[in-house]
Write a structure and sequence with these properties.
704 residues; alpha/beta; four-stranded antiparallel beta sheet; 23 helices
């Protein structure tokens, strides 16, 4: 049938309004992104100038960097006491003398938090802590991984948790830090004057407020800078400094000075493996450990838990890191607990207290000065001091419980209720600040600095549009501007189906990025930095922005090359309508991939599940096999295919108001019967997937 008339009609309002709104938001967010980029560059330039000045001062012998390495680290390299017994007082005195000047600069003017507790008082205590798991075999007793462990920590102490593999170190640390999520917990705990059960939510909430945790494998964005990492943690934990952002930045730089991060390295990437496998060079292993300490101490905790802080470090760097932790604890009135496997004597001599575990039982829990008494108790010869750490592990493995051993009858009371109330009374960061902080971090590290993400994606979308434009060159062109003939419309439908597939297939490239973020979120949410909905909202905003850029490029290339114009309306209205279809369809595709990534336990499974979904959605789109040729019993599945609505929206945007629109009825692509309703359904699917992502992400927790 030949269609030789030219129809005219009014364009649908909703697609035009939606497309215009998306364009305006795209321009606004792109402007915001450029402002963030230029501001970061200005800050980095300022840092570079500051580094040059310090280098010049160092060369002249007048600046702080002109000092020796030992002096810059507060005397870390000075001669240490010959033995651990009786060394604590002298070490604290020397630490305070050398470290106090810098720490005085870092203390913020908050009189309420200047509550000093005597170092002899306990900050945390526990009694008969136990953890067990139900046996997988019915009728068998529970599996106990920790049994009746008691002890306490005093202010300014550095405590070591030691034991062989499978001894219960990680379980014990997870209970103390409030991060234990599995198992049946029992016992009593007291933190800052508050008694509680280790399994209660009050315990977890209090520890989340007063404690910081440094995992064995530090979690950083590889292309984030050290200064940004510390500022991110401080802003989300303490909120914005009322005296201005410049004060917070100054405190962050002073903290980096304390931990010995070189000035030149502060505006460079931390380094690591990007999502997708690209490796960036950056900080050394020791510098990463010290940066993790800076992030933890910048949140002003009263307790800090360090999991294998010296793992992966050489002996010299291990001593430097432990010495740094000790000095920070003494001068900032913080207690630290360190899980450590087999330290050298130089590292071991820095600890004040030792908790030794073996097969889930407590072998020793007291000051290091009491170790000789422990050896007398078990009838073992006291070793040479340099062999003590290794011999303690051997003694623990041979240790047998003494049934006559006296267990503590009462829980030692901890002190510091006023400090706890002060911490609870801190002004919390606003939701706006949390959202902006997370958003800026994601913009800079996932999209601006990660070339393989933003620019490569936009380039691939553009190249795909060019390739399809060449394959389907002028396929929708009609002579003399008349309406398309039926066979031309069917051919244009095929081209549109390929364009629609791009919107649902290319987002799979983001699975590795989403998995990277999911793991990072689980780590950060465990210390309460920000809620799940903020992460999800930032992802929705950023991915919608990226998809609008890609859809704009795709529309600008493919529509003219394929001549996909609706002849019943103006070309500008036709372009904006089709742009809104591509943009919303791409956002839906991204939201489905995000939800799939959150629900999947591995990247491989996410690819498998997502691919199966897309195959099904394509089969039920009505583009490959028209609905009239399908069996009636299977047709109902078309209503759950988002590609159906994207394809129908494209088809209606091409034929609505033309004489060829009868093809929509012949192919049963007439429900919903216009572009607007198809877009409304797609927006609904997008909102549903985003809401499900928030719910699913809020349930993502570290399994410990």
């Amino acid at each position: 049938m030949k269609m030789d008339s030219k129809s005219s009609s009014s364009p649908e309002i909703f697609p035009l309004v939606l497309g215009g709104l998306l364009l305006v938001c795209n321009i606004a967010f792109t402007t915001f992104t450029l402002w963030v980029v230029f501001r970061k560059r200005a800050e980095n330039h300022e840092q570079a100038q500051d580094a040059a000045r310090k280098e010049e001062d160092a060369a002249n012998g007048t600046g702080e960097d002109g000092k020796g390495k030992d002096e810059r680290f507060g005397g870390m390299g000075s001669k240490r006491s010959s033995w651990v017994f009786g060394r604590i007082a002298s070490k604290r005195a020397s630490s305070a003398d050398t470290f106090a000047p810098k720490l005085n600069n870092i203390q913020e003017d908050d009189a309420a938090e200047e509550v000093m507790i005597k170092e002899e008082e306990a900050i945390m205590s526990w009694k008969e802590l136990s953890c067990s798991y139900p046996s997988k075999r019915s009728g068998e007793p529970n599996i106990t991984t920790l049994s009746n462990v008691s002890g306490h920590i005093r202010y300014q102490e550095l405590v070591a948790i030691m034991g062989g593999s499978g001894g219960g170190k990680s379980t014990f640390m997870d209970i103390l830090s409030g991060r234990k999520t599995l198992g049946n917990l029992s016992g009593e705990m007291s933190v800052l004057g508050t008694e509680m059960s280790p399994s209660s939510m009050d315990c977890k909430n209090i520890l989340r407020n007063v404690a910081a945790y440094v995992p064995q494998n530090e979690q950083f964005f590889p292309n984030q800078t050290p200064e940004e990492a510390v500022e991110f943690a401080a802003n989300l934990k303490l909120g914005r400094d009322e005296r201005g952002d410049h004060v917070r930045k100054s405190r962050v730089r002073e903290m980096l000075d304390l931990v010995g991060i070189p000035v030149k390295a502060r505006t460079r990437s931390i380094g690591g493996t990007l999502a997708g496998g690209v490796v960036l060079r950056g900080l050394s292993g020791g510098e990463r450990k010290r940066l993790a300490l800076a992030c933890a101490f910048s949140m002003k905790p009263k307790l800090i838990f360090l999991d294998e802080i010296t793992s992966g470090l050489d002996s010299e760097n291990a001593v430097v890191v432990i010495d740094l932790v000790k000095k920070l604890c003494v001068n900032m009135n913080v207690a630290a607990v360190v899980v450590i496997h087999q330290p050298s004597y130089e590292v071991f001599s820095h600890f004040d207290r030792l908790v030794m575990l073996c097969k889930g039982k407590c072998v020793f829990s007291d000051k290091l000065d009491c170790i000789p008494s422990f050896y007398d108790e078990i009838g073992r010869a006291f070793p040479e001091k340099y062999l003590l750490p290794a011999d303690l592990l051997k003694a623990a493995s041979e240790w047998k419980p003494d049934p006559q051993r006296v267990q503590p009858n009462e829980l030692i009371k901890s002190c510091g209720k006023s400090a706890l109330e002060d911490i609870k009374g801190r002004k919390k960061p606003t939701l706006g600040l949390q959202f902006r902080t997370v958003l800026v971090r994601h913009v800079m590290n996932h999209y601006i600095r990660n070339v393989t993400n933003l620019f490569a994606r936009v380039l691939i979308y553009g190249l795909s549009a060019v390739l399809l434009g060449l394959v389907f060159w002028k396929i929708g062109e009609s002579p003399d501007g008349q309406d398309l003939q039926l066979f031309q419309a069917e051919a244009a439908f095929g081209a549109g189906l390929f364009l629609t597939q791009i919107l649902f297939l290319l987002p799979f490239a983001q699975i590795s990025t989403f998995f990277f973020d999911k793991n990072l979120f689980a780590s950060e949410s465990s210390i309460g930095l920000y809620p799940a909905w903020i992460y999800s909202l930032t992802q929705v905003v950023l991915e919608t922005w990226v998809m609008s850029l890609c859809a704009l490029l795709q529309s600008a290339i493919a529509i003219p090359m394929m001549s996909l114009w609706n002849m019943s309306i103006s070309k500008s209205a036709s372009f904006i309508t089709m742009f809104s279809v591509f943009c919303v369809g791409g956002a839906v595709g991204n939201s489905i991939v995000l939800l799939t990534s959150i629900l999947s336990f591995s990247q491989d499974f996410a690819f498998l599940l997502g691919s199966a979904n897309v195959i099904f959605f394509l089969a039920m789109s009505g583009g490959f096999v028209p609905y009239p040729y399908m069996e009636s019993w299977i047709l109902w599945l078309q209503w759950i295919s988002p590609i159906k609505y994207s394809f129908q929206a494209f088809a209606w945007s091409l034929l609505s108001g033309t004489s060829t629109a009868e093809l929509m009825d012949q192919l049963e692509l007439n429900t919903p019967p216009n572009v607007s309703l198809n877009l409304v359904i797609l927006v609904g699917i997008f909102c549903l997937c985003s809401a499900c992502s928030v719910v699913a992400l809020s349930r993502q927790k570290e399994v410990r």
